Amino acid sequence: MDMMSVRPALSGKTYFIRTFGCQMNLHDSERVAGLLDACGCLEAADPAGADIVIFMTCCVREAADQRLYGQCNSCKSLPAPPSGTRVVAVGGCIAQRDGEGLLTNVDNVNVIFGTHAIAHVGELIAQAFEDGGRHVSIAEDESLAAVSMPWHRETVYHAWVPIMTGCNNFCSYCIVPYVRGREKSRPFEEVVDEVSALVRSGVREITLLGQNVNSYGRDRYGAPRFAELLRKVGETGIERIRFTSSHPKDLLPETIDAMAETPAVMPHLHLAVQSGSTRILKEMNRRYTREDYLDLVRRVRDRIPGIALTTDIIVGFPGETEEDFEETLSLAREVGYAQAFTFIYSRREGTPAAAIVDPTPHEVIQERFDRLVKVIEDTAYEFNQGELHATVPVLVEGASKKNTRVLQGKSPKNQTVHAPIPEGLNIEDLIGKIVDVRVDTARTWYLSGTVAGDPR
């Protein structure tokens, strides 16, 4: 089916997208939504009101597969959609990994599109409506065509900006390089032009996306250009720059300098350590040692005092001993993370670590995990005490779920901040604005205080 016939086939159809996983998946979902909008589709509030239900999947965790199967099966019991026919589609990493094999596990799925086939999702769904068949596209596309697709952003003040796709690192536990492919960087000028256009449209904060942003440009230009990109993007007028993910082995001194010297770059760095044991790091194929990581942290803090450091940590990697785990605990205490995403190791078929036999009982791993969570809670609480009685500029995201008269937003260090909405204002007046909040309470996972001054 050619694109000329896609819009008539989809016009007036309603859609609902449920996204699992990382920020790259969130961005992919916004692109899919933008494409459907351009085809005349309308967004539905829930799956029951949707002619098209799309699941954008992540396969980093083993439980993701079962979660997807459950979500797909739940569509069978939904009432008939507005058009009388419902198309269920699966995209993202599980779709790329399993392809047609997914059809045998979920018998009500009509469309499967991989991470390289986002630009074709409209055609695939239109075909499914037209012939009632099941359509699959997971072929690798060497282009980055998806980034030029229409875009349906979740907010008007923030935008995800992919600067590269894929990963070359092949950590032994990770499935991502197999489903996202090898690193492909976007042209430097294209990224800068996109950010400039976003600034003109009113965007105040961007997040630069890549599986390893520190490698940006190596495949295209022969050497990394991420530091240069940070500086150039900082000249566009964008007020806040964030980025993820950042691999420790590739965080160069010039990037740290660019972070320190570019005012728009927020004082927050997500630097995934995964383990505090050099032995386990080697088994993970992370290509740095515990000492390398701690030295990097010291260099970052020397250049950017007070920076918020966050991380990812895996507990229970095959063969991890109590001694290895204690090294992780001590590293977490020494670094003093503002936040950490902690995971129990999940075996993924097709990765080298999946072949390692580990006799460690699950209850031992769970007990270690619980100890790590307590350490992270302690370091996060201690870090937030540094903001007590300070005034922080907060980008307002909306109202607190617990109290609609309390605003919620993010500080430059990516801390969640709450404050009562000033008299005479509504949350609609504040979303996307920056307000100064004088902090009078600092808890483990949030700050709270009082708005000081007018929103801007």
Tell me what you see in this structure.
This protein has 456 residues and is an alpha/beta fold. It folds into 3 domains: 135 residues, 3-Layer(aba) Sandwich (Rossmann fold); 241 residues, pyruvate-formate lyase- activating enzyme (Alpha-Beta Horseshoe); 64 residues, OB fold (Dihydrolipoamide Acetyltransferase, E2P) (Beta Barrel), CATH 2.40.50. The protein contains 16 helices and 19 strands. The strands form 5 sheets. The chain has a 6-stranded parallel sheet, sandwiched between helices. A 5-stranded mixed β-barrel has the order 15-16-17-19-18. A 3-stranded parallel sheet has the order 7-10-11, sandwiched between helices. Helix 6 links the parallel strand 5 and strand 6. Helix 14 runs parallel beside helix 15. The longest helix has 23 residues. It is globular. It starts with 5 loop residues before the first helix and ends in a 5-residue tail after the last strand. The model has no long low-confidence stretch (mean pLDDT 92).
